[in-house]
Amino acid sequence: MQRFRRLRTNEAMRKMVRETRLCKSELIYPIFISENISKPTIIESMPGIFQYPIKDLYELIKQVSDSGISGVLIFGIPKEKDEQASSAYDDNGITQQAIRYIKSEFPHLLVIADVCLCEYTSHGHCGVVKDGIILNDPTLPLLCKMAVSMAKAGADIIAPSDMMDGRVAAIRSSLDENGFLYTPIMSYSAKFASVYYTPFRDAAQSAPAFGDRKTYQMDPANAKEALREIADDIEEGADIVMVKPALPYLDIIHAASKRYDLPIAAYNVSGEYSMVKAASQLGWIDEKRVVMENLTSIKRAGANIIITYHALDAAKWIDKEN
Ligand code: PBG
Ligand code: ZN
């Protein structure tokens, strides 16, 4: 008989043989910056997460910087939205201002700019709309302008989340032409049309005004197609590829990490976060244990980078455990 229990007899023993350890430097914290508020404003469907005006960002970013996690992923909510998402590529837009501010105060913290039009369009879609259709190719130049504007503001990494075909190649050549040869692209490669984004759309005020995102985001049923999306983004020049959401798609994370030799990011999205928060607030589950188990599982599946709203809490818990 094989006595597996020999190596489980006490915590020191279990710790010695543990195969997966979370590390603070692989965590990224998403933040929401709004031009429409004058004080931090709670997001009802995401307990513990706020929208911030730029003037109140300092405390939060200081906390992030002190926590030991690698950086932040920025989402801006502009005052003006229009059909062409003009504020997305306005060098003085809310997101650009926020990036400049964070980089000036905390130059060592990585700032990742989400590149997508949905927070900036009046209709809330991720691309240009004509006659109720979300157009692919006319969207690309706008994404390119947005990416360059974010890089100019000081973004360390450009993260396109729009799911238009061909956007990684287009953004790469625009960045290069504008002198940003060393700004990496973290592509949301396998981004599924998921109901788990629901709380985020309150946070980013980016719900589509009509229809849904199923013509550009992936069908949750498709794994092979996810690998083709990833292969294509790598070919187009992505430096890091992302799978999103994380927990319902561990099979995709695992397959991607087996097949491709570049860093894999996983986005533990708003709905995954809010379900954990709701159950813990009701006393139905232990928050710390469930978060640590979830994040460990995402890493075990093959993620090298984890974007999560639990990042600040997890950083504290990781400190205590290691
Ligand atoms: C924008 C974007 C979304 C998320 C990240 N970037 C929402 C969407 O596609 O509707 C979701 C993040 C989350 O749920 O935490 N394209
Ligand atoms: Zn979008």
Describe what is shown at a glance.
With 322 residues, the protein is of the alpha/beta class.
Question: Key terms for this structure?
Answer:
ten-stranded mixed β-sheet; binds ligand PBG; binds zinc ion
Q: Would you write up a description of this structure?
A:
The structure is a single chain. The chain has helices at residues 11-17, 57-67, 94-105, 140-153, 167-177, 198-203, 224-236, 250-259, 270-281, 287-301, 311-321, and strands at residues 27-34, 41-42, 50-52, 71-77, 110-115, 128-130, 133-135, 157-160, 186-191, 240-244, 264-268, 305-308. It is an alpha/beta fold and 322 residues long. The strands form 2 sheets. Strands 1, 2, 3, 4, 5, 8, 9, 10, 11 and 12 form a 10-stranded mixed sheet that branches. A two-stranded antiparallel ribbon has the order 6-7. Helix 8 links the parallel strand 10 (240-244) and strand 11 (264-268). The protein is globular, with a radius of gyration of 20 Å. The two termini are 33 Å apart. The model has no long low-confidence stretch (mean pLDDT 97). Zinc ion (ZN) is lined by residues 116, 118, 126, 161-162.
Measured by DSSP, the beta-strand proportion falls in 15-25%
Show unreliable segments. none
Main β sheet profile = 10 strands, mixed
Oligomer: single chain
SSE string, helices as H and strands as E: HEEEHEHEEEHEHEHHEHEHHEH
Radius of gyration (Å):
20 Å
Number of β-strand runs: 12
Tell me, briefly, the overall form. globular
Alpha plus pi helix count: 11
Helical coverage, percent range: 25-40%
Task: Give the ligands present.
Answer: ligand PBG, zinc ion
